[in-house]
Amino acid sequence: MTDRILLGFDYGRKRIGIAVGQEITHTAKALTTLNSIEQIPDWSGIDRLIDEWRPQLLIVGMPSHMDSHTANEPHPLHDEVKAFGDQLGKRYNLPVEWIDERLSSLEAEEQLATSNKKKRLKRDKAQIDQLAAQVILQSYLNNIASL
């Protein structure tokens, strides 16, 4: 068992949700959502998180189609997400792994809907994005725990 720190990313053109996790505890928690300006990630915000958490691995959610008719076609955001993850890896000299992010935003919305949080937070897209990053990262941690 390793004790690496991981950061998880839910990439979007307007916002990027970010979560942190630990392999030793197999737990992930939502950290923050950074806004992108004209589809350019907030690299200074990501710099701060990398400096603060010092992760050894970065996990990026890769969108894919739910429909079996389009399952073999790349999702419209595939190339953008791949480019973002590749930039992460090069910029921070860290390995990047990809995980299917299907339904992560829906699961995040459901978590908010069943929580005791105020109604306005349940519709807050930034809150949903960081929870989606948590779902993505938790899914990754669950997968490696079962190996």
Task: Report on this structure.
With 147 residues, this protein is of the alpha/beta class. It has a single domain, classed as YqgF/RNase H-like domain (Nucleotidyltransferase, domain 5, 2-Layer Sandwich). The protein contains five helices and five strands. It has helices spanning 43-53, 78-92, 104-114, 119-122, 125-145; strands spanning 5-10, 15-22, 27-35, 57-62, 96-100. It has a five-stranded mixed beta sheet with strand order 3-2-1-4-5, with helices on both faces. A hairpin with a 4-residue loop joins strand 2 and strand 3 (27-35). The longest helix has 21 residues, at 125-145. It is globular and about 40 Å long. The mean pLDDT is 84.
Instruction: Sketch the topology as an H/E string, one letter per element.
Output: EEEHEHEHHH
Q: Do you know the CATH architecture?
A: 2-Layer Sandwich
CATH superfamily, by name, is: YqgF/RNase H-like domain
Q: Give the biggest beta sheet.
A: 5 strands, mixed
Number of distinct helices = 5
- Would you count the extended β strands for me? 5
Shape: globular
Q: Could you tell me the radius of gyration in angstroms?
A: 15 Å
Briefly note the structural class of the backbone.
Answer: alpha/beta
What's the structural domain tally? 1
Low-confidence stretches: none
Which range does the strand content fall in?
15-25%
Order of neighbouring strands in the sheet with most strands? 3-2-1-4-5
Which bin fits the share of residues in helices? 40-55%
At the fold tier of CATH, the topology name is: Nucleotidyltransferase, domain 5
What is the mean predicted local confidence, pLDDT?
84
**CATH hierarchy, class:** Alpha Beta
How widely separated are the two ends? 11 Å
